[in-house]
Automatic annotation (TrEMBL):
Keyword Cytoplasm: no
Name this protein carries in UniProt: Flagellar motor switch protein FliN
Transcription is among the record's keywords: no
Residue ranges of domain Flagellar motor switch protein FliN-like C-terminal in the record: 3-72
Membrane-spanning ranges: none
Family in the record: Belongs to the FliN/MopA/SpaO family.
Organism: Devosia honganensis
UniProt subcellular location: Cell membrane
Primary location recorded for the protein, binned into one broad class: membrane
SUPFAM superfamilies listed in its UniProt record: Surface presentation of antigens (SPOA)
Topology class, membrane: Peripheral membrane protein
InterPro entries per record: FliN-like_C, FliN/MopA/SpaO, FliN_T3SS_HrcQb, SpoA-like_sf
Length: 77
């Protein structure tokens, strides 16, 4: 089991996505709003090493952001 202690996994949680020209991104300043393709009720997408592994929801408790896994994604084989 000690071998598993040294394995690194990059976890990414995606709230939503959008596409925009780079010149719009470069002109954005502090406080700019970027519209995403998701609503507040849509599940988050959770990736491990760029592979979708689960869906979930965000929760704020005592000033801490938490992500709860609500559904594991089936692995393609």
């Amino acid at each position: 089991m000690n071998t598993l202690d040294n394995i690194e996994v990059d976890i990414t949680v995606e709230l939503g996505a959008t596409t925009m020209p780079i010149h719009h991104l470069l002109r954005m300043g502090r406080g700019a709003v970027i519209e995403l393709d998701a609503t507040e009720d849509d599940p988050l997408r959770i990736y491990a090493n760029n592979t979708l592994v689960a869906k979930g929801e965000v929760n704020v408790e005592e000033g801490q952001l938490r992500v709860f896994v609500t559904e594991k994604t089936a692995r393609g084989g």
